[in-house]
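Good day; I would like, with your permission, to put a structural problem before you. A protein sequence and the structure tokens that stand for its backbone fold form the material at issue. Thank you for your consideration; the sequence and its tokens are set out here:
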Amino acid sequence: MNDLKFGDIVFVIEILSIILSLRYFPKFKKTYYYFFIAFLVFAVLFETLGMLVKGNNNYWVYNIYTFFEFSSLIGVYYFLNTSTKSKKIIIVLSIIYYIIYFISFKYVVLQKYTVIILPFFVVPFMFLYLQKLLNSSKIMNYKKVLPFWLTVGFLIYYLASVPFFSLQYLFGLYDRLLFTLLSAVVIIMHLIFIVSLIWIRPIQKSSSSYLQ
């Protein structure tokens, strides 16, 4: 399967994730879920723009996308984490990243680093949520908790993306295999989203406490 076909599959599955997230919106109507939908929508919008602006001149597209990607994830995990300490950590990390991000527009050389370091800022958000889940009664039914599976999907993608973007932005390596592997990781992430949205919904029908 070549990169083009993988790219097509990624785009289709991203659209499917949006459709299902909107379809099940009435069941998962929590504040974090709004930001999850925003994350999916921004991914498709900027992916489309990136395809329209082809070649090496489309880096600015993904640099701008990074802002919306990061902001969406802040929203997801700020509202999932209920402790004051966790919220403060998220705010501090967010401020640091935003400072680096906006400075990169003045010092363009930093723009490639905003993508590379993104996982180092968002992954702590996810571990804060998992810590909260571990210390709550919901851990006994974690398989029925939608944010748990969303977090699993996010972790798989962001941890796997570090070596990919490091090789691409720092060393200028554009190996077709790397792009294929990253596409496969994106597909896995969205499959987790899709399956969890479909599977968890009927299980949670009689237990609204699991919706958060």
Observations:
- The chain has one domain: 3-211.
- The CA atoms of residues 116 and 163 lie 9 Å apart.
